[in-house]
Every structure is written in C-alpha cells, then in structure tokens.
Write a structure and sequence with these properties.
Distance between the termini: 28 Å
Number of helices: 7
Radius of gyration: 24 Å
Number of strands: 10
Shape: elongated
Structural class: alpha+beta
Helix content: 40-55%
Strand content: 15-25%
C-alpha cells in the first residue's frame, strides 16, 4: 500500500460491484370489504426472494384507512394483519403461494410475478409504489422522509463533531466545511474538515433506506475528494478518512445488518486501494481526538 500523502505513488482504483441480478417472486393479496361486491383493495404483498427469504408487507397505512373508512378503518387494518400473518406462517412452512387457503371470506390471492432489482428491499419498494394505490401514496411519502432523514443525519453527524471540537478549541471552526477546486471550471468540493496532517469527510449509510446505493456512491465520491487533496501540493496528510454514520446494530434486523456489513467490506477495500480510511460506525470521541491532537501541531 502506498503511503498516505504520497501523490506520486501508483494508484489502484476499483469501484465495488453492485450487481443488478437479484430477483423475487411476489403475489398481491386482495380483500373485498363488501363480500361479493367485486370491489377489491390490495391489503398486502407476499415476497419470496431468490435466496428463499420470505417477506410479507401490509400495504394499508392505518392513518389513511381511518380517513377513508372512519372508525371502521381500524377493523379493516386488523383484518388485513390477521390474513397476512397467516400467509406469512404458511410461506415459512411451505414456501408455496398456491397452497395458501385464506380463512376469511372475501380474500383473494393474485398471480405470482417475478421482479428484478438490486436487493429485496428495492424490489419491495418498487412493487409497493407501482401496484397499490394506498401503498403508493404511503411509500412515496415514507421514502422522502427516509431520504431526508439520511441526508440530514450526515449533516447532524458532521455538525456534532464540529461542535465537540470547537467547544474545546473555537479557532478550529474555520477548518470545517472548506471548499477546494480540483479542476479548472469544476464545481468546488466541500471537505468536512482539513487540518495540518488530517482531513475528514463525513457521510451516512442506512440499509433501511431506498437511497442506499446513492449513499454508497456519495461516500465513494467523498473518498476520491480526499485523495485529490494530495494533488494540490498540500503537506503530506498522515490520516485521511471518510467517517460514516450508520444505525446502531440493535436498530437493524438480520437482513439489513448483513446488507450493511457486506457493503462496508466493499467500501473499506476501496478505501485501502486509494489510501483513504472509510470508517463506518459512531465513534465521536475518536474522530474528535484526531482533530484536537492534530490542531496542536504547528
């Protein structure tokens, strides 16, 4: 591995592979609120992924049901949950859509459809958005909230580190959010922190978010920006790092934990290839100590 700060060293650069070959079979589950009326609503989707993972999704947000059906909305939501819980147990036992027999009248199972995307969560998001009126209205708003939360979380994480450092050394304020132009005519890059011998960019990565791939790409861009600092003829940095906020382990289920762990290995390997540390986790004290220790070097 080349020494950090040595811009003359050979650079081995490779992007992590994000495959687009994941598939899942899914069926819609319909309910006739007035039996035999022929008027059906989609109460859920049942997914069976290529790796055998089973996921059942209720597409009826309780708030929306209450607005449409009044005080009957809660009963309808409970009925949908009962049907989908039964279907979930059946799928985990048999892995078969076609052998499920609803115990409630007016429930119908649609034809199985195969869908491809990057992972199961992406497939679920795509199906929810495109195949159910209630779910489309809900998931779009939910996605905007999630996206906003992740984007703001990166800013919150960076601001927290800045506050901790400047609380002890106020003069460091000018070292945060510094702009650099790496090419003539190019848009200036905003670097999270640039000190004497250390520089940081800050990001966020949440496997529960539908913008997960965009978050990964943003972290990659942050790493490339830090690497470009060496090309400006600045002093040799002893530590260049993209420090990434992630949800705590207890906030993740098994699938999202595996998803995050897999991507973290790809990102860390990319960082090794270009001599940039990509650190995932919430270690506020360690980052602050790096900055404070570096600020004492004149």
């Amino acid at each position: 591995m080349s020494k950090i700060g040595d811009s003359s060293a050979g650079l081995i650069f490779r992007l992590p592979e994000f495959l687009n070959t994941y598939s899942a079979l899914w069926v819609p589950v319909y309910l006739e609120p007035i039996t035999f009326s022929g008027e059906r609503i989609t109460i859920g989707f049942v997914f069976r992924a290529i790796d055998g993972t089973i996921k059942v999704v209720n597409t009826l947000p309780l708030d929306a049901l209450s607005k449409v059906f009044g005080n009957k909305g809660k009963d309808l939501h409970s009925l949908a949950s009962f049907v989908l819980t039964s279907f979930d147990a059946h799928m985990r036992a048999t892995q078969k859509f076609e052998t499920f027999v609803p115990s409630v009248k007016g429930v119908f199972i649609g034809e199985a459809i195969e869908t491809f995307d990057t992972d199961l969560e992406s497939i679920i998001y795509q199906v929810r958005k495109n195949y159910s009126v209630f779910s489309a209205l809900f998931v779009s708003g939910e996605d905007l909230l999630t996206k906003s939360r992740i984007e703001s979380q990166a800013k919150i994480w960076a601001a927290t580190i800045k506050n901790e450092a400047t609380k002890i050394r106020p003069s460091l304020s000018v070292n945060f959010n510094r702009e650099f132009k790496f090419r003539e005519g190019a848009r200036a890059a905003n670097i999270g922190y640039v000190g004497n011998n250390v520089a940081f960019n800050f990001g966020a990565l949440d496997p529960n978010s539908s913008s997960f791939l965009q978050q990964q790409n943003r972290i990659i861009r942050h790493a490339i920006e830090l690497n470009s600092l060496n090309k400006l003829g600045m002093s040799e940095f002893t530590h260049l790092e993209v420090n990434v906020w992630t949800p705590k382990k207890r906030e993740l289920n098994k699938a999202t934990y595996i998803k995050l762990h897999s991507v973290s290995e790809e990102l860390e390997q990319l960082g090794d290839d270009i001599d940039i540390r990509i650190a995932l986790g919430q270690d506020l004290k360690k980052v602050t100590n790096y900055i404070l220790a570096d600020s004492g070097l004149q």
